[in-house]
Amino acid sequence: MSTTKGRFLTFEGPEGSGKTTQLKILAEKLRAAGHDVVETQEPGGTRIGAQIRQILLDQASNDLKPTAELLLMFASRAQNVDEIILPALAAGKIVLCDRFTDSTLAYQGAGRGLGADAVYDIDRIACRGLVPHRTVLIDIDVQTGLARATQTRMEQQPTAFHRTVRDTFLQLANDDSRRIRLIDGARDKEAVAADVWDAVADLLK
């Protein structure tokens, strides 16, 4: 899918990786450099997406089944793509998104055992070929990440689930190293931020 003049950058990582902090640091740097930046998140990003996010992360939703979880993730994403992301890209803006389909491959495809094929099938409907120009994957070991994280429904999943999620992220980075840049998130945020800048600078020329 053509995204005209804009740039679509996504941030991924296990729970507690610090990706949200790094997205905000990058957004500030880009704005200071004169770029027009839009920040969004998945699930969420829109009014409708925020309502879906509440269902997905609420501890009261523990009876939510894996297939319903997958479909809700993409319902939020489809709204975000049409309402926020594509219009911003068409206007030549830089869009920074906290999670996208790579997370769904890791959490629902692998973690929930639904498989990559199911994720890609729905992605074709919801995102219509939209792929990030660059993905920054902030990696951190599971125990450290969970110790940092807050207690949402997703973060309360068993440790084995989170290990599967992390392993899948690392495999995705290995399979698509041109798009996905792997960064060690166990260091101080300034060192991580410097690597994030290096990972995206070529797209800003």
Describe this structure in words.
The chain has 205 residues and is of the alpha/beta class. The protein has one domain: P-loop containing nucleotide triphosphate hydrolases (Rossmann fold, 3-Layer(aba) Sandwich). 53% of the residues lie in helices and 13% in strands. The mean pLDDT is 95.
Short description:
The chain has 205 residues and is of the alpha/beta class. It has helices at residues 19-32, 47-57, 66-90, 101-111, 116-126, 142-148, 159-175, 189-200, and strands at 7-12, 37-41, 94-98, 134-139, 180-184.
Tell me the layout of helices and strands.
Blueprint: E1 7-12, H1 19-32, E2 37-41, H2 47-57, H3 66-90, E3 94-98, H4 101-111, H5 116-126, E4 134-139, H6 142-148, H7 159-175, E5 180-184, H8 189-200
Parallel strand pairs: 1-3, 1-4, 2-3, 4-5
Task: Give the CA-CA distance, first to last residue.
Answer: 21 Å
Instruction: Supply the number of structural domains.
Output: 1
The structural class is: alpha/beta
Strand order of the largest sheet: 2-3-1-4-5
* Overall radius of gyration: 16 Å
Q: Pick out the low-confidence regions.
A: none
CATH architectural designation: 3-Layer(aba) Sandwich
* Overall spatial form: globular
Instruction: Write down the overall mean pLDDT.
Output: 95
The CATH topology annotation reads as Rossmann fold
Main sheet overview? 5 strands, parallel
Question: How much strand?
Answer: 5-15%
Task: Describe this protein with a few key phrases.
single chain, 205 residues, Rossmann fold, alpha/beta, 5 strands, 5-stranded parallel β-sheet, 53% helix
